[in-house]
């Protein structure tokens, strides 16, 4: 009886997927339709993010503010930014009139990404987390990796070369192109971490940070290597792209490929003409015999 009562008590303490996370959405009258659309999304659609990050306390509710382009908030951030989160305030600000840019495609994508940031802040108890890790984990938990992620990574590997983690953090404060590159590399780096150490790795890192460990020590304790060593291994695994693709896509290689195709086409055409001429000759001989 005691164990049965304890089981019921623990089940009562554990929030269900339908309860977490909770949202309180505010919007001006002109954005009432967007507010209604976001309110229609069941909280359970975001519960997987909380589960991945190991955050189970549904309190406090996440405040979501929808802002217009005429608002002071819109004037304070770059025009390509469609949303941002403030972890210590449990606040998400979204600009519905702005088309989501990479790594998001829809308004729900933006909301999921910013919810991930709020929950990362809670998982780490607000302790310092590098921007590249924060953004990379948010991308990893908000959705499955897409073909677009691979193409963005390939493009930035070929056009930008190697970037260290310190510089990667600074890119998030740069231009729109800088930020796109930062998201592509941070997402790929964290995904590579998950491939090597499992999805529990980033959750365990955040848990250790919450307990007071600096990020570098928490990272090394969980993965067995330092962030700088993980960075080197990541770039080593990308060498096939950074070494061979520039050669394959160089102008000289492309001209060689075009020339080769042209020569092959000429050869095939001449052989076909020769076969046709031989066929005509046979037909003429047959007519002469008759």
Give a description of the structure.
With 290 residues, the protein is mainly alpha-helical. The protein has 14 helices and four strands. A four-stranded mixed β-sheet has the order 1-2-4-3, with helices on one face. The protein is elongated, with a radius of gyration of 28 Å. The N terminus is likely disordered.
Q: What integer value in Å does the Rg equal?
A: 28 Å
Total of domains:
3
| Structural class estimated from helices and strands | mainly alpha
The SSE string, one letter per element, is HEHHEHEEHHHHHHHHHH
For the biggest sheet, the summary is: 4 strands, mixed
Query: How many beta-strand runs?
Result: 4
* Mean pLDDT across residues: 84
In percent, how much strand structure appears in the residues?
Answer: 5-15%
| Shape summary | elongated
Oligomer: single chain
Strand adjacency order, main sheet:
1-2-4-3
Number of H- or I-type helical stretches: 14
Instruction: Specify the helix fraction band.
Output: 55-70%
Poorly predicted segments: 1-15, 246-250
Report how far apart the termini are.
109 Å
């Amino acid at each position: 009886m005691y164990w049965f009562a304890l089981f019921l008590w623990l089940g009562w303490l554990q929030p269900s997927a339908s309860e977490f996370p909770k949202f309180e959405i505010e919007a001006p009258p002109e954005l009432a339709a967007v507010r209604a659309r976001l309110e229609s999304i069941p909280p359970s659609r975001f519960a997987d993010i909380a589960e991945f990050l190991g955050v189970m306390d549904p309190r406090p509710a996440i405040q979501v503010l929808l802002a217009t382009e005429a608002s002071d908030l819109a004037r304070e951030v770059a025009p390509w930014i469609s949303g941002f989160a403030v972890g210590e305030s449990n606040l998400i600000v979204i600009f519905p009139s702005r088309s989501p840019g990479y790594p998001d495609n829809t308004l729900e994508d933006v909301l999921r990404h910013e919810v991930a940031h709020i929950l990362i802040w809670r998982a780490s108890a607000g302790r310092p987390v590098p921007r590249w890790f924060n953004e990379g984990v948010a991308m990893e938990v908000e959705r499955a990796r897409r073909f677009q992620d691979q193409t963005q990574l390939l493009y930035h590997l070929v056009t930008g070369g190697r970037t260290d983690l310190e510089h990667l953090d600074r890119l998030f404060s740069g231009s729109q192109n800088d930020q796109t590159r930062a998201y592509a590399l941070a997402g790929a780096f964290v995904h590579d971490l998950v491939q090597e150490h499992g999805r529990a790795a980033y959750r365990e890192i955040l848990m250790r940070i919450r307990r007071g460990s600096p990020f570098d020590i928490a990272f090394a304790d969980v993965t067995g290597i330092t962030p700088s060593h993980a960075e080197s291994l990541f770039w080593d695994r990308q060498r096939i792209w950074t070494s061979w693709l520039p050669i394959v896509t160089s102008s000289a290689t492309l001209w060689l490929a075009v020339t080769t195709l042209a020569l092959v086409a000429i050869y095939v055409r001449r052989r076909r003409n020769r076969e046709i001429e031989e066929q005509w000759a046979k037909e003429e001989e047959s007519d002469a015999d008759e």
